[in-house]
Amino acid sequence: MRGVVMYGPGDVRVEEVEDARIVDSTDAVIRLAAACICGSDLWPYRGIDKLNGPAHMGHEYAGLVEQIGDDVVNVKVGDFVVGSFVASDNTCEICQAGYQSGCIHRVFMTGTQSELARIPHADGTLVPTPGIPDPELIPSLLAASDVLGTGWYAAVAAEAGPGKTIAVVGDGAVGLLAILAAKQLGAERIIAFSRHADRQVLAREFGATDIVEERGDEGVARIKEMTGGYGAHGVVEAVGTQESIWQAIHAARAGGRIGYVGIGHEVDLNGLDLFFEGVHLEGGPAPVRRFLPDLIQLIWDRKIDPGKVFDFTLPLSQAAEGYKAMDERRAIKVLLTV
Amino acid sequence: MRGVVMYGPGDVRVEEVEDARIVDSTDAVIRLAAACICGSDLWPYRGIDKLNGPAHMGHEYAGLVEQIGDDVVNVKVGDFVVGSFVASDNTCEICQAGYQSGCIHRVFMTGTQSELARIPHADGTLVPTPGIPDPELIPSLLAASDVLGTGWYAAVAAEAGPGKTIAVVGDGAVGLLAILAAKQLGAERIIAFSRHADRQVLAREFGATDIVEERGDEGVARIKEMTGGYGAHGVVEAVGTQESIWQAIHAARAGGRIGYVGIGHEVDLNGLDLFFEGVHLEGGPAPVRRFLPDLIQLIWDRKIDPGKVFDFTLPLSQAAEGYKAMDERRAIKVLLTV
After folding, report:
1. Is A139 at the interface with chain B, CB within 8 A?
2. Which residues on chain A are in Cβ contact (under 8 Å) with B101?
3. pTM for the full model?
4. CATH topology of domain A2-146+287-337
5. B150-283 fold
6. B253 vs A278: CB contact, 8 Å cut-off?
7. Where are the alpha helices (DSSP H) in chain A?
8. Does A275 contact B281 at a Cβ distance shorter than 8 Å?
9. Which ipTM score applies to this complex?
C-alpha cells in the first residue's frame, strides 16, 4: 500500500510501505475514506521534534473495517468507523473515568496517512457511524478523530457553558474547532485570538463573538478590558509555545480554567508565577474517545460541520505539497484523498 | 503594641510597632486571641524569599473585634472572628465563584504576629463564630485561618471523596490537615508521604490509611503498586519544590487531580512532560474564605480538631525560638500566646 513517510525536516515522500495487517487478536484493519495532515505533524516537519529514522505519518482516521482480529466483537467487517488518535481499551479505570488518552494500555496511533491502517484495541477504540456516510460527511468524521475531539475537550476543560466568556488562543484547526465546541456547549461570549483574515471568517462562522488581533501582554490587556477587568472564565490554549501558554494563563481570571491542548515545546512554567495566578490547568492528549459518540451524532444530524477546517484537498500522492502548504500557513488543514 | 519583625534570614525580633488602626472605612481592628507561625514564614527566614527591609510577620488570625470602620456592617465590636490570610471583598465575580484569594481587591495579610491587627475588607473577610469560643478551641480556629483552610482546599482540588484514593505530599501542618480534610470529604484511602514518626502518628489520627516513607521515583513506584498500577485519583502537593511537585504529578493517574498549595520555589514545569502526564493542576493561594463558615462550624461542634498541629506553644515574646524550632523541624507548628 502507499503511505506518507517523513525522512527528516521538510522531507516527506509517498511510497510503498508494508500493508497494514492484524497483529494482535484485538486489532482491526480499516481502509481509510480519506487521510489528513495534523498541525502536530509540523513539529517534526520543522525539525523541532527529532525523528528516529523514517516515520510513517498520520494519526487521524475514519473508514471501512476491512479485517478484524479473532477477539474483536464490537465492530464488524464493513462497518464505517471513527477512532481517536490514541487507541484505548475503554475498559480500564482511566478509560471508564473518561480519560481514554491516558488508558493504561494506550497506543499512540501512527501510519494513518495511508490506504490502510491497523487499529489496536479495536473494540475500545472504534466507534461505528449509524450507517455508511454520504461522501460530504467524510471530512467532518475525519476531523472528529483528532482536531474536533481535541478542540471539544479543550472547551470542556475550559468549562465553556452558559454565562461563560471563553477565549481561544490559536486559530489553527484545533482552536477553530474549540470555538465551535464552546458555541455548542452554550458559551455566552467566545473571543478568538487571530490575525489571519481567512481564519477570522471561519472563527465567526463557528461561533466567535469577538476577535482580538493583539497577542501577548497586549492581547491579555484587551481581554481584561472586555471582561470588566476580570479576565475570561476559561481559556483554550491550542498552540503550545511559551508565549501562548502564558497568554492563556494571564487572559483567565483567578479560579479560571485553562484547557491546554497545544503540545508544549520549549515551555517552562515557573512555579511561583503559576502559583499566584491561581488558575486551573487541564490538558494533554485529548480523550477524544469520550466525546466521539456524541460528535459523530452531531455530524450525522448535520448540526455541526467541522469539516470546514479542511481548506485544501490533494491526492495522497501529493502529501508533500500538503505539508508545505500547512507549514507556510497557506492551508489551515489538508485533506488527502486515498 | 508588640509585634514580630523579621530583619533578615534567621533574624526575628519582637519589638514595639505602631498600633494597628482603622485606615479605610471598610477596615476592622481585631485583638488576637493567639498568633502563630506558618511554614511559609520559613521561606524568608531561610533566605529563599528576599525581604525588602524589616517585615512585620504573620498572616493567620482569630480574635475579638475591637474597632470597626464606618462602613462595616457584617461584624461588630466584641464579635469573635476568623478570617483568611487573604482579605477579600467577597462580592466581586471572582469571590462569588468561590475564589476569594483571587479577589479583584485582594490584600495579602501581614502583621498578625502581634497583639492587634488591621483587617481590610472586614465585611467580606471576617466570619464571626457562633459565640465567644472556649479557650481550647482557639488553636483550631486559628488553624482555620490558613493551614486548615489551605489543606481543605487542596483536598477539594484533588477531588477527595467516596471511592477515591488520595495521596498527600508533605507532612507539615498543611499536608496533615489535607489528610483531615480528605477524611472528612469521604476519601476511601488516604496515603501520606512521611518519614517523621511524630507526624506519621498525627497523619494516622487525622485519617491516613497508609504511610509511604519513600520519596521521589521510589515513592511514586509505591503508590502505583498500591493502586493497581494506576496511581492515585488525586494528590495534594503541600511542599513547593521541584521534587515534590513532580512526585505529586507522577503519583496521580492520567486524568487525576493535583491540588497544589505548596508555594513553588525554584520550580519549573516542563511543558512537554506536563502535557503527556495529562493531569489536572489546581492550586495557588487557597480561597480559605470559601470554606470558613463550614470549618468554623465543624470546629465549634468538636467534629474536627485541627489545632493538634500546634505541638509547641510559646509567648509572643519568644517568637524567635518558635521560628528556630520550626526551621529545625522540632515543631510542626508554633502557637504564640499574646
Report:
1. no
2. 254, 278
3. 0.97
4. Quinone Oxidoreductase; Chain A, domain 1 (3.90.180)
5. Rossmann fold (3.40.50)
6. no
7. 42-45, 93-96, 122-125, 138-144, 147-157, 173-184, 197-206, 216-226, 242-251, 271-277, 288-300, 319-327
8. no
9. 0.95
